[in-house]
Amino acid sequence: MTQVSIQTGDFDTATELAALENCGGGGVASFTGVVRGDDGLIALELQHYPAMTLAQVERIVEDAMTRWPLLGVRVIHRFGRLEPGDRIVFVGTASRHRTAALESCAFLIDWLKSHAPFWKKEHFSDGEARWVDARAEDEAKARDWLS
Amino acid sequence: MTQVSIQTGDFDTATELAALENCGGGGVASFTGVVRGDDGLIALELQHYPAMTLAQVERIVEDAMTRWPLLGVRVIHRFGRLEPGDRIVFVGTASRHRTAALESCAFLIDWLKSHAPFWKKEHFSDGEARWVDARAEDEAKARDWLS
Amino acid sequence: MAPLNILYFAWVREAIGRDEEQVERPSADMPIADLIAMLAARGGGYAQALGDPDRLRAALDQHFVPLDTPIGTARELAIFPPVTGG
Amino acid sequence: MAPLNILYFAWVREAIGRDEEQVERPSADMPIADLIAMLAARGGGYAQALGDPDRLRAALDQHFVPLDTPIGTARELAIFPPVTGG
């Protein structure tokens, strides 16, 4: 069972975890990302390239399935306007082996957080807003992944 | 926020994750262990040393808190009789940094699954029952941890 | 032949003031960078968004490609800043 | 001085048929292994559970210790197979 959703709405981690627990494996690992309200941030605006995002995320999920013996993978990524405390991303993996579940979860969230085709704009309480710059090292890694 | 429970009853992962999401960090990692019904297993009986288990788990949680910048740690371990599909263990960690959350979660579940003072008896559908033997490599690691 | 559809994202979109447009198809051997230079020459938001190609990345038909890649027969060209992840 | 409380776990508990008992306190310098040998000498389930010390581990007052550790003034001795984790 693999499922990828790129959506504006929130999600229910309990529902997602329950589905993964029912995959018959011994372990379910998950990572949930939450928007932080650092430095007066009041909102995060996520833009993405719809025709590309889903295909790329599905490709990295397939990649994870070949690297680890997984029974289930669930990826949810939100876009649009999010506020501090809002869930932004969920990755859940199920496997017979805890190491496979944990490592693949880390692999997927790592890719999503640095290489997925999203652009982020930060809005601050003083009215300022700025697009987040890509970090050079992330760009270098992204080239490796996508080449 | 750190909390450790050693209990017979089931737990609600959604409640636990929500509490961790509210720790103010950017990421929550979790691992949920589920009893597998391999080889005709119909029940797993977990015995533990109550005066020791809680103290040791709390010690390893403190250890994790010094190794990683964590905002919250939640550990739940069940004992008694469990059946295939039952949740047996939950580890959740919250941090500003996804790597810290994921690594500490892996560290804690690794310790729990191999070194926590539990003994497991497997009951099979053919009426057989046997105590699970410790693996030699786990014992060697346990000595490192606990010395 | 069909015109080329161009998509813009993030601050490129904001500066240009539109999220997509169609342009007359350039010759197949024209590198993306040359088309970007032609668009930047329109001035205004285009110059602002596309004047410094070092800050830009591109995708042809939903595949990341270097800016010296010829446009070929692609139907869709996307121009954007480096992705910042989710 | 108070008697020594002994706890048994897993198949040690099953073979002996009890989860704890109190014994007269041995001298402080007696190693755990010697007490285990004395208990095994009771025969029956004790011999079965405690006859092969290589299969046993121990804790004094809730701390894992090697079997050659003197019992000292500990209040609680636990005898069990190697832990198998959760």
From TrEMBL, chains A, B:
Entries under Gene3D superfamilies matching the protein: Molybdopterin biosynthesis MoaE subunit
Pathway given in the UniProt record: Cofactor biosynthesis; molybdopterin biosynthesis
EC assignment: 2.8.1.12
Its job: Converts molybdopterin precursor Z into molybdopterin. This requires the incorporation of two sulfur atoms into precursor Z to generate a dithiolene group. The sulfur is provided by MoaD.
Membership in a protein family: Belongs to the MoaE family.
Assembly: Heterotetramer of 2 MoaD subunits and 2 MoaE subunits. Also stable as homodimer. The enzyme changes between these two forms during catalysis.
Protein name: Molybdopterin synthase catalytic subunit
Organism: Sphingobium vermicomposti
TrEMBL record, chains C, D:
Lineage top rank: taxon: Bacteria
Keywords, sorted A to Z: Nucleotide-binding
GO biological process entries: Mo-molybdopterin cofactor biosynthetic process
Keyword Nucleotide-binding included in the entry's annotation: yes
Record carries keyword Heme: no
Single annotated GO MF: nucleotide binding
CDD domains for this protein: Ubl_MoaD
One GO CC annotation: molybdopterin adenylyltransferase complex
Similarity annotation: Belongs to the MoaD family.
Full protein name: Molybdopterin synthase sulfur carrier subunit
UniProt source species: Sphingobium vermicomposti
